[in-house]
Write a structure and sequence with these properties.
48% helix, five-stranded mixed sheet, Cytochrome p450, alpha+beta, 441 residues, 12% strand, globular, 16 strands, three-stranded antiparallel sheet
């Protein structure tokens, strides 16, 4: 979509400059221009100082090597001041309603040593050996159940809303300890949290604000994120109390019974721990799953390649994650003058790590704008890098591999049955609809 068409369709969002396009959530739903901007910034020497309208400025970090350098230097580039791109109004609103710069205090919002101590509490649960030993049979049963549900839908279905959203949701809720009947609530809250400005999400939500939220300057309604946070905290507050009084064999209990320096995890940190597992634990996996299946539907040769050679499924999983890159960026703030890509970043200056750009870096990936199910090597950084690398990355890969092992051999073909649509969000995003036509074997 041409930039002027975006401005006509979504008034209030400037597209005249790269600076403004980098933060425009609508362009993440129609990303051709955004990919061109990323490529332009990767070609330019040094980092790019972005000054988008309505946002505090930041250094745009778009190359694979530079994102990696910043991610590894967690002593010089910290999370706690800015976690993601938010308009100035949004930052002020969060400070007003939450008394802090963050609604939550999750692993991605915190720095060491607090981050490390919190992460260690559940670390063992999410390691490959523990996943295989404890979850193989349960996850495979869930995958088979969803394949049969998909078959029952017939030859034409929306793969996102009928399969990709629900399968990883069921897995992570089972691990966390959330009852099955509460899964629709968890899905709704997750979509509101990550897609607060998406018109489809807004239309389904009763928690709406027109003037006090992030997007006041654009005149667009959005989900009231403070109310979403309150619902999350109320729900998980009951779970936290229950697991402290009545331990079970689930991650909710591990967190509830966990300690830091001999004391129980503070309540806000514990509740935020639940939230990050319950939201990022399924939303990112569903996005990668749908994104990979979409590319198989677009390219019959790639579909046959993977279906006929199951040994390629792990590579297909990695390429799906690279291609989709569900977490589009994270922010860091420099605390000690440091040179990155020949640019002096001074203490107090912020950086945005654009993972979608890094995962299409021409100096790292051969033909990066082409989906290759058998891509090897594939050193993507969709899970981040350094101490903040995704806690659930092994689980995500495991879930996706098992689903494809159960589904692909049963399919004769798959093709698009309509136009896929991406969600409108510049932080965590992916396909929100994927109409496909399948032929079963």
């Amino acid at each position: 979509m041409a930039t002027h068409a975006v401005e006509e369709k979504f008034p209030g969002w400037s597209t005249d400059r790269i600076d403004d396009r980098l933060v425009n959530p609508y362009l993440y739903a129609e990303p051709a221009q955004l990919f061109a901007d990323y490529a332009e910034l990767r070609r330019r020497p040094g980092l790019y100082w972005a000054t988008p309208v309505g946002y505090r400025p930041f250094w745009a970090v778009t190359r694979h090597a530079d994102v990696t350098q910043v991610s590894k230097a967690n002593d010089r580039f910290v999370n706690r001041f800015r976690t993601y791109l938010s308009p100035i109004e949004g930052e002020q609103w969060t400070l007003k309603v939450a008394g802090d710069t963050h609604l939550f205090r999750t692993l991605v919002d915190l720095d060491d040593p607090e981050h490390r101590k919190l992460r260690q509490i559940t670390h063992a649960w999410f390691q490959p050996g523990a996943i295989r030993q404890n979850l193989e049979g349960k996850v495979r049963a869930i995958a088979r159940e969803h394949v049969e549900l998909m078959r029952a839908k017939g030859d034409v279905l929306d793969f996102v809303n009928e399969v990709a959203l629900w399968y990883p949701l069921r897995v992570i809720m089972m691990i966390l300890g959330v009852p099955r009947e509460d899964e629709p609530l968890m899905l709704k809250l997750t979509q509101e949290l990550f897609g607060a400005i998406d018109p489809d999400v807004v239309a389904r939500s009763r928690r709406i604000t027109d003037s006090a939220g992030f997007w006041a300057r654009s005149g667009n309604a959005q989900v009231d994120l403070f109310q979403v946070a309150q619902v999350f905290f109320e729900y998980f507050g009951k779970m936290l109390a229950d697991r402290r009084a009545h331990p079970k064999d689930d991650v909710a209990t591990v967190i509830a019974q966990g300690t830091i320096d001999g004391a129980p995890i503070p309540e806000r940190e514990a509740l935020s721990y639940y939230v990050i597992i319950a939201t990022a634990g399924h939303d990112t996996t569903s996005s990668s799953t749908a994104g990979g299946f979409c590319e198989l539907a677009r390219n019959p040769a790639e579909f046959r390649k993977v279906r006929d050679n199951p040994a390629l499924i792990p590579a297909f999983v990695e390429e799906s994650i690279r291609w989709t890159t569900p977490v589009k960026h994270f922010m860091r703030t420099c605390v000690a003058d440091t040179e990155v890509a020949g640019t002096l970043v001074r203490a107090g200056e912020a950086l945005a790590l654009f993972y979608w750009s890094a995962n299409r870096d021409e100096t790292v990936f051969d033909d990066p704008m082409t989906f290759r199910a058998d891509r090897d090597p594939n050193p993507h950084i969709a899970f981040g890098h350094g101490v903040h690398i995704c806690l659930g990355m092994h689980l995500a890969r495991f879930e996706m591999r098992i689903l494809w092992e159960e589904l692909l051999p049963k399919l004769e073909s798959v093709e698009l049955a309509g136009e896929p649509k991406l969600s409108i969000a510049n932080f965590v995003s992916g396909l929100k609809t994927l109409p496909v036509r399948v032929k079963w074997r």
